[in-house]
Amino acid sequence: MKFLVYSEINAENISHSLGLPDYSYYFVLRDFKSVLEMLGEVIVIGNPALEVDHHYDMATANHEACVFLSFTPPHNTCLGLRCPTIPVFAWEFDSVPNEHWLNDPRQDWCHVLKTCGSAITHSELTVRAVKEKLGADFPIISIPSPVWDKFSKLRSKLLEEEPSTTAKCNIQIQSGIILDTHDIALDPYMPDLDAVAKAVANARSPYGIKDKKTALAKDAAQAYKRKITRTYLTQWLELVACYLNHQRKPKQHVQLTLETAAEPQKLEPRNQVEPVVPTGSGLRPRQPLMQPDAGNIELSGVVFTSLFNPYDGRKNWVDMLTAFCEAFRNTQDATLVLKLGHHEYQDAINGILMCIARLPAFQCRVVIIHGYLEKAEFEALIGISSFVVNTSHGEGQCLPLMEFMSCGKPAVAPLHSAMLDYIDGQVAFLMASWLDATAWPQDPRLAYRTCRHQIDWSSLVAAYRAAYDCAKLEPSRYRLMSEAAAARMQQHCSKETAKQRLELFLKNNVFGTHESL
Fold first, then answer.
1. Does residue 140 carry a pLDDT above 90?
2. Most confident listed range (165-174, 179-188, 199-208)
3. Paired residues of 188 in beta bridges
4. Fold equal for 2-146+498-509 and 149-174+294-494
5. 3-state secondary structure string, 422-442?
6. Which residues does UniProt call coiled coil (predicted)?
7. Which of 31, 132, 150, 448 is spaced 20 to 30 A from 489 at the CA atom?
């Protein structure tokens, strides 16, 4: 049989599409492709409206079964095709859109799914949400992205090793940004106390600064002596840093800039996976530009790692970061690695540094990495990591979490949304959460129709500490959790699991007893 597959992001544009809306569908398609090849021929489609029915007609003429798998959200699925069409989509909420807006009937997912007649998703939560709207008999199945098998060599190697918190690993990057709170060279990028105070005050003021020129002049006069002293100190520290590490280059200090352009009023919400547009007026810190370059970082101790798109508000990195710094404010060998996944990095890193600058002093370590990691370097990052961290408000499946756990890395994660299918106390240190009303992310009306999960911050702090104690003091328990994580993911997201579920679903709901199956 023939499988026609499509995602809006493809191999040609993924390198500059990281972080854009629905970019993860490309990776899901890539993982599914090897499973589909076990069942038949796979043809990647570039334009569904022009190509799908052409291939379908040829397959039909040859008495061959053919199906179109659209790895897109339902509202972006091409309708009206002769070829059987199955949307393959991720969704993190307990209700699916059953209304339309902007005069586009496809925004009503129930309409799209009814038209297609069946669907594939990645969590039982979404299966229940769809069946609640379309009936218990509607053909939809959860098949998580099959990521387990591709880590077989790394998993075997890691599970054979004894758990250790004294190992060290050097991670290299060919072109990217690496920032380390234990590195004195980070200082030029950090907002100083004046910048933080003014940014916070301006953000809290309902009217902004009335007389900006006067305020700037007054602030400049008061800060003049401090500025001279701070400038000389910074220059000296930079010279010391350059002497210790010739790869480091002196950077400029944070400055304050005055912006007066009024921000246009918009009815639509900001896309949750697009960079935040800075406020158009008032004082805000302007960070020095960071230029991607080759670099390396040595990691050791108890390493907590998270991979996420920093512009996706659902990922909730602020709680992740602040709770970590609270949990380990006096613990030098606890490290949080934030691996950022978006082609636009400047504003994201500035936002993280601003958050760090507002925190009380801490001894733990925070490392920010932006840039592509080669396979060997990515596997090294997995290997040195003690835990993988997720603090999101909701997940459709969470590929990074599944990948790290497939390598035997226990998690620090909440128990909600798609994670209900594979997270529990045997494989993770859990944090509490509660439901909070919100809108569907693509709804420009901002109509509250569903709920997200708000993380209980204090329980996150406790989960961090419990995980650290386990890694440091209970290596036998850590090994059991590591083995359980790998075994859990084999059941959840292996190729064999996906193949069996997909083959049975197609036979029962799409092709019946077609001879090509």
1. yes
2. 165-174
3. none
4. yes
5. CCCCCCEEEECEEEEEEECCC
6. none
7. 132
**3-state helix/strand/coil string of 42-58:** EEECCCHHHHHHHHHHH
413 SS3 class: strand
The CATH fold of domain 149-174+294-494: Rossmann fold (3.40.50)
Over residues 339-381, the pLDDT tens digits come to 998 878 888 999 999 999 899 999 999 999 999 899 999 999 9
- Assign 200 a pLDDT band (cuts: 50, 70, 90): low
Integer Cα distance of 61 and 193 in angstroms? 72
- pLDDT given for residue 170 in this prediction: 96
Q: Tell me the C-alpha distance between 297 and 171, whole Å.
A: 5
Q: Which has the closest alpha carbon to 367: 383, 353, 346? A: 353
**Paired tokens of 184:** 């004195």
Q: Which two tokens stand for residue 395?
A: 């997940």
Q: Taking residues 298-325, what's their average pLDDT?
A: 96
**Tokens 């919400």 sit on residue:** 269
First-last CA distance in the chain: 7
Q: Three-state SS across 64-91? A: CCEEEEECCCHHHCCCCCCCCEEEECCC
* Nearest CA among 421, 366, 424 for reference residue 396: 421
Specify the residue for token string 């290299």. Answer: 172
Domain ranges within the chain, ordered by starting residue: 2-146+498-509, 149-174+294-494, 182-286
Tokens of 206: 């309902």
The CA-based angle 55-57-58, given to 5 degrees, is 65
Is the pLDDT at 20 greater than 80? The verdict is no
Backbone φ and ψ for 351, nearest 5 degrees, come out as: -65, -40
Phi, psi angles (nearest 5°) of residue 114: -60, -45
Backbone angles phi, psi at 483, to 5 degrees: -65, -40
How far is Cα 50 from Cα 460, in angstroms, rounded to an integer? 49
> Average per-residue pLDDT in the chain?
86
| Cα 342 from Cα 187, distance rounded (Å) | 24
DSSP bridge partners of 104: 101
Which secondary structure element, helix H or strand E, spans residue 322, and what is its range? helix 317-327
Amino acid at site 487 = A
Domain 2-146+498-509 has CATH 3.30.1490: no
